[in-house]
Amino acid sequence: VQLVESGGGLVQAGGSLRLSCAASGTFFRINAMGWYRQAPGKQRELVARITSGGSTNYADSVKGRFTISRDNAKNTGYLQMNSLKPEDTAVYYCNADFPWPLSTDYWGQGTQVTVSS
Shortest CA distance to 27 belongs to which of 75, 62, 84? Predict the structure, then answer.
């Protein structure tokens, strides 16, 4: 199983980016998918998470600005990021949880998001 992220880059404060996470390999389905981020010198933190049924939860710092979604037919998750702030600058990682028989989760390689002031 491989998770490949795309969509990161450099954007000015107030701008938008859309991250994608495509899962490939041998599996039946994906349970929850999530986006995490890690800024320099800080711990990795949860940004947003979505279950297979579409229930979502967000970090307080991104509520109202970020939207997580998924396309189960394409095994792809998305993170729409609007009204970006310099403090959103980080490496963003995709995480996907797989049920039996894999019974584990996988991480993407990360994509850099830089927001300039």
Answer: 75
For the chain, 117 residues long, give each residue's pLDDT as a single digit of tens: 999 999 999 999 999 999 999 999 998 999 999 999 999 999 999 999 999 999 999 999 999 999 999 999 999 999 999 999 999 999 999 999 998 888 889 999 999 999 999
First to last CA, the chain: 37
Single-letter code of the amino acid located at 36:
Y
The Cα–Cα gap between 103 and 84 comes to 35
DSSP-derived secondary structure letter, 16: -
